[in-house]
Amino acid sequence: MTDYQMSPASGTRLLRFVGDRVRFTLPHPRPEAQAEGWRAFLRTNLTRAARLREETLSLLGESLADPAGSAWRDIPLQEDSEGWHLDLALTEPGPFQAKAYCVDPEGCQHWPGGDNVALTVHPDQLRTANTIYCAFPRMFGGAAARQRPDLALAVAALDGAGYAVIPPSGRLRDLTAE
User: Fold this and answer.
1) What is the pLDDT of residue 165?
2) What are the Cα distances from residue 44, in Å, to 3, 10, 141, 160, 170?
3) 8 Å CB contact between 140 and 170
4) pLDDT of residue 173
5) What is the pLDDT of residue 52?
6) Is residue 36 within 8 Å of 105, Cβ to Cβ?
7) Quick one: average pLDDT of 18-30?
8) Cα separation of 55 and 116, whole Å?
9) What is the pLDDT of residue 21?
10) Distances from the Cα of 98 to the Cαs of 14, 77, 112, 120, in angstroms?
């Protein structure tokens, strides 16, 4: 099924937080598909973070009781007049993937083209209270007071000739003092 797209689109990379919800939709492949008995599923490892961690540790040589790939599962999508959908609560942090697909009445799977949706879920406490400071040390320490008046004419001449003259300015220790 390459003639239509799931939502979020195949290959999309999403960042969400625990407690958020994500909605997956997949349109009917053609108008009569609703009456023909088509079904749709979301193949994902969402909500399986513990199993995913076990698989990752097994790559480092730890023993694994279940085969690799067991974190993946198929969740049935709900059908409506437009197609299928699933509104999924994000309950645990981790890196996940998902992709919706259809199954026709004969049991053949039909996948939208493109890569899986990559979904990174961060802990809820990382959602807020993150402050990034950006400071320009040149603005601190009384930089204007350090300008040399005896060089003002030379600086003006260089500026007039198209050169950028960077005068003495604040230092990191001036910023730290503030």
Assistant:
1) 76
2) 22, 13, 55, 64, 53
3) yes
4) 83
5) 67
6) yes
7) 89
8) 19
9) 94
10) 11, 13, 12, 11
